[in-house]
C-alpha cells in the first residue's frame, strides 16, 4: 500500500540533510544521500547476519546467502526482469568495463562500435579501447550546438555496426536519449546494445526489456543506496554465451588441475566475495522508495526542476539540452561568468553543486565550454531549496557581473 | 599592480564584514589579470585541478616575478593575493615566507574547500621550488 509522496516527510529520513552544517544539496547526480532504512539495513547485516555468501552452510552463512539473493530478487523486481539476469558489480563503471571485456570476441576487424558524443567517460573509454584492440571503428553520434543528440531513427546506424553503447539519460544535459529506437536499429543489424542507466535510474521508469536493449547498467549510490554496489542486467540468452570476466572463487562449478567449469549466470560474473552489505543496502533503498508511487517521486523531482529552470531562465542563464525534457540535471552556462567562480560563491552560500566537465570532456570540447555548473535534483529537494539556491545565485551574480 | 604588504592586505580583508565582501575584494584583485596565459608561459606553469584551469609562472633569478592566468576570476584573485607579499622578493625571503599562516591570517584558508585549497597548495609548492632552486646549497 503506497503513501502519497511528500518531500518534507521523506527528507526527515535522511540524517545528513538534518545536520546543522548540511548544505542545500543539489549534487545528486554525483551521489545521493542515504535514508535511515539503508543505513540500518547495512548495520543490521553486519550486526546480525554477517558471513560469506554461497560458501559455507552454517546458519549464519545461510542467512547471508539468503539476504544477498533476496536483494537480487528485489532489484530484479524493480526492473521487472528475472533475478538470474541481475549481476551485482561495484557500479556502472565496472559493469561497462566488464561488458567491454566479455563482448570483445564478438567484434572483428573493421566492425563498427557506436556511441554518442554525450557519453560519460565510463561509457566511452572502454568501447574506444575495445575498438582499438579489435581494429574496429568507433562511430560517435554527434550533438547539435545546444547539446541535443543529432539523431533520428531514419538516420539508422553505420554499416557493419556490431555494438551500440548509449546513455539512457545524459548526466550533463539531462536529455533522455531515443534509446528504444537506437536499440531497435542495432537489433535490426544484428548488433548488441548496452545502456548506461546511471543517471536514468533515479529519474525515469527503468524497464530494460521494454527498451529492447541487451544490457543495462546502473550504480546503487545514485539511487539512495550505498557506495560500492552496482547492477548489470543482461538478457539471459546473451549472458548464457558470454565468458566470465574476473576469475576466482565463487564463479566456478568445478576446478581440477587442468581445467575449470564456470557457473551459470549471474554467478559466473561474480567472482570473489560479493559486497553483500551493499547489495542488502541497495535492496533496502528500493524498498524504501516503494513506499511511494515511483511516478509521484518523479513528478515531484520534475516540479522542483521546473522551478529551477524558470528561475534560471529569468536571470538570462542558458541551459543545455532539450527544453522541458531534462531529467534530473541542469547544466548552466552563464554568459561572461566562469562556472567555477559561480560554484565557489554558491559553496560559500551553503549550496552544493558540481562544476566542471562532469566526466564528459568530449562533449565540453564539442560545445566549446570550459565546463558547466550542474544542478541535479533528488527526491528530498524542496521548494525551500530552490529559494535558497535562487537567493545565493543572485548574490553570486551580483558579485560576478 | 601595487604590491600590498601582508599587513595591508590583512587589514583590507579584516575590514570585510561578510563573506560576500571578502569575495568582492578577491574578485577585484582578479579582475585585471588575464584569463589565458601568454605564449611565453612555460608548460609547467599549469596548476593541475579538476574544476579549474590556472597558470602560475614564476620567473626571475634574484627577484621573483609571478605571472598569473586563469579563466576563473576568483582563482586569479586568490593567486594574486598569494603572490602579493613575495613579488620581487629574493629567493631567501620566498623560502622563509610562511604562506599557510599568511592565508590563515587573511581568513582565506578556512573558506576554501579541499580541492581549491590544494590548488593553492600546488602554487605554494611551486613558490618553494623556485626559491630552493636559487638558494646556495
Describe the protein's architecture and organization.
The complex is a heterodimer of chains A (401) and B (137). Chain A is of the alpha/beta class and 401 residues long. Chain A has helices at residues 7-11, 15-18, 36-49, 59-79, 92-102, 125-133, 179-188, 208-211, 236-241, 276-289, 294-314, 339-348, 361-367, 383-400; strands at 24-25, 86-89, 112-116, 137-141, 161-167, 192-196, 215-219, 230-234, 252-255, 260-262, 318-319, 329-333, 351-352, 354-356, 372-376. Chain A has a seven-stranded mixed β-sheet, with helices on both faces. Chain A has a four-stranded antiparallel β-sheet with strand order 11-12-15-14, covered by helices on one side. Chain A starts with 6 loop residues before the first helix and ends with a helix. With 137 residues, chain B is mainly alpha-helical. Chain B has a three-stranded antiparallel β-sheet, with helices on one face. In chain B, a hairpin with a 5-residue loop joins strand 2 and strand 3 (65-69). In chain B, helix 2 (19-31) packs across helix 3. Classes of the chains: A alpha/beta (401), B mainly alpha (137). The interface between A and B is medium-sized, with 15 and 17 residues.
Task: Give the percentage of residues in beta strands of chain A.
Answer: 15-25%
**What is the tally of helical segments of chain B?**
6
User: What percentage of residues of chain A falls in helices of 4 or more residues?
Assistant: 25-40%
Q: How large is the count of helical segments of chain A?
A: 14
Order of strands in the sheet with most strands of chain B? 1-2-3
Q: Which blocks of ≥5 consecutive residues of chain B have pLDDT under 50?
A: none
Low-confidence stretches of chain A: none
The most extensive interface between chains reads: A-B, 15 and 17 residues
Report mean pLDDT of chain A, rounded to a whole number: 95
| Main sheet attributes: strand count, strand direction, barrel closure of chain B | 3 strands, antiparallel
> In angstroms, what is the radius of gyration of chain A?
22 Å
Mean pLDDT of chain B: 86
Strand content of chain B: 5-15%
User: Biggest sheet of chain A, open or closed, and with what strands and sense?
Assistant: 7 strands, mixed
Shape of chain B: globular
Q: Can you write the helix and strand succession of chain A as a string?
A: HHEHHEHEHEEHEHEEHEEHHEEHEEHEH
Order of helices and strands of chain B: HHEEEHHHH
- Count every beta strand of chain A, where a strand is a DSSP E run of 2 or more residues: 15
Amino acid at each position: 500500500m503506497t503513501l502519497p509522496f511528500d518531500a518534507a516527510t521523506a527528507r526527515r529520513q535522511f540524517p545528513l540533510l538534518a545536520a546543522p552544517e548540511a548544505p542545500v544539496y543539489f549534487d545528486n547526480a554525483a551521489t545521493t544521500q542515504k535514508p535511515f532504512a539503508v543505513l540500518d539495513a547495512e548495520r543490521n547485516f553486519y550486526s546480525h547476519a554477517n558471513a560469506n555468501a554461497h560458501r559455507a552452510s552454517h546458519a549464519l552463512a545461510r542467512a547471508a546467502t539468503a539476504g544477498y539473493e533476496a536483494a537480487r530478487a528485489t532489484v530484479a523486481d524493480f526492473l521487472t526482469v528475472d533475478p538470474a539476469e541481475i549481476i551485482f558489480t561495484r557500479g556502472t563503471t565496472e559493469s561497462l568495463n566488464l561488458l567491454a571485456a566479455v563482448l570483445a570476441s564478438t567484434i572483428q576487424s573493421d566492425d563498427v562500435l557506436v556511441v554518442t558524443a554525450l557519453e560519460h567517460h565510463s561509457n566511452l573509454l572502454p568501447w574506444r579501447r575495445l575498438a582499438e584492440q579489435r581494429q574496429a571503428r568507433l562511430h560517435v553520434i554527434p550533438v547539435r550546438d545546444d547539446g541535443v543528440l543529432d539523431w533520428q531513427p531514419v538516420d539508422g546506424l553505420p554499416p557493419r555496426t556490431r555494438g551500440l553503447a548509449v546513455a539512457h539519460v545524459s548526466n550533463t544535459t539531462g536529455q533522455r536519449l531515443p534509446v528504444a529506437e537506437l536499440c531497435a536499429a542495432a537489433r535490426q543489424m544484428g548488433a548488441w546494445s548496452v545502456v548506461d542507466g546511471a543517471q536514468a535510474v533515479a529519474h525515469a521508469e527503468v524497464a530494460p526489456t521494454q527498451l529492447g536493449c541487451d544490457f543495462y547498467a546502473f550504480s546503487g549510490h545514485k539511487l539512495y543506496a550505498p557506495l560500492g554496489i552496482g547492477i548489470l542486467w543482461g538478457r539471459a540468452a546473451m549472458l548464457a554465451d558470454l565468458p566470465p570476466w574476473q576469475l576466482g572463487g565463487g564463479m566456478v562449478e568445478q576446478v581440477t588441475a587442468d581445467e575449470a567449469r564456470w557457473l551459470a549466470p549471474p554467478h559466473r560474473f561474480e567472482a570473489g566475495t560479493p559486497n553483500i552489505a551493499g547489495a542488502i543496502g541497495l535492496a533496502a533503498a528500493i524498498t524504501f522508495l516503494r513506499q511511494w508511487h515511483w511516478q509521484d517521486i518523479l513528478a515531484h523531482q520534475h516540479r522542483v526542476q521546473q522551478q529551477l529552470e524558470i528561475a534560471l531562465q529569468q536571470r538570462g542563464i542558458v541551459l543545455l539540452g532539450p527544453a522541458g525534457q531534462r531529467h534530473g540535471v541542469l547544466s548552466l552556462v552563464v554568459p561572461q561568468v566562469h562556472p567555477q567562480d559561480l560554484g565557489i560563491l554558491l559553496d560559500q552560500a551553503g549550496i552544493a553543486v558540481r562544476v566542471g566537465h562532469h566526466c564528459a570532456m568530449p562533449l565540453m570540447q564539442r560545445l566549446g565550454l570550459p565546463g558547466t555548473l550542474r544542478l541535479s535534483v533528488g527526491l528530498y529537494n524542496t521548494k525551500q531549496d530552490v529559494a535558497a539556491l535562487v537567493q545565493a545565485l543572485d548574490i553570486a551574480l551580483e558579485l560576478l557581473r | 599592480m601595487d604590491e600590498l604588504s601582508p599587513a595591508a592586505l590583512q587589514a583590507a580583508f579584516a575590514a570585510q564584514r561578510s563573506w560576500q565582501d571578502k569575495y568582492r575584494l578577491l574578485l577585484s584583485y582578479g579582475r585585471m589579470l588575464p584569463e589565458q596565459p601568454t605564449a611565453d608561459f612555460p608548460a609547467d606553469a599549469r596548476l593541475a585541478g579538476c574544476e579549474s584551469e590556472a597558470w602560475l609562472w614564476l620567473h626571475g633569478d634574484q627577484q621573483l616575478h609571478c605571472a598569473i592566468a586563469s579563466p576563473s576570476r576568483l582563482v586569479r584573485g586568490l593567486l594574486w593575493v598569494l603572490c602579493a607579499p613575495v613579488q620581487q622578493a629574493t629567493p631567501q625571503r620566498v623560502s622563509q615566507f610562511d604562506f599557510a599562516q599568511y592565508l590563515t591570517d587573511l581568513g582565506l584558508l578556512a573558506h576554501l574547500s579541499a580541492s581549491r585549497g590544494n590548488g593553492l597548495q600546488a602554487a605554494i609548492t611551486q613558490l618553494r621550488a623556485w626559491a630552493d632552486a636559487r638558494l646556495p646549497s
